[in-house]
Amino acid sequence: MKEIKINTDFIKLDSFLKWVGAVSLGSEAKMLIQEGHVKVNGEIETRRGKKLKSGDTIDFDGEIYSIL
């Protein structure tokens, strides 16, 4: 599990995937999220604007990220 510290109250899911380097383009993040390839807190999330906050976990492409 990779622990990721954010400096704001929240970060949107598509921005998070770009920020941690899981995807290179926002359009790529949008497509993968809408196709159901990303889980937030164990549930498939299809909203790219989902606000992530401290304590959330993101499961994508075999990696699990935890937001601090």
Automatic annotation (TrEMBL):
<protein>
    <submittedName>
        <fullName>S4 domain-containing protein YaaA</fullName>
    </submittedName>
</protein>
<dbReference type="InterPro" id="IPR014330">
    <property type="entry name" value="RNA-bd_S4-rel_YaaA"/>
</dbReference>
<dbReference type="InterPro" id="IPR036986">
    <property type="entry name" value="S4_RNA-bd_sf"/>
</dbReference>
<keyword id="KW-0694">RNA-binding</keyword>
<dbReference type="Pfam" id="PF13275">
    <property type="entry name" value="S4_2"/>
</dbReference>
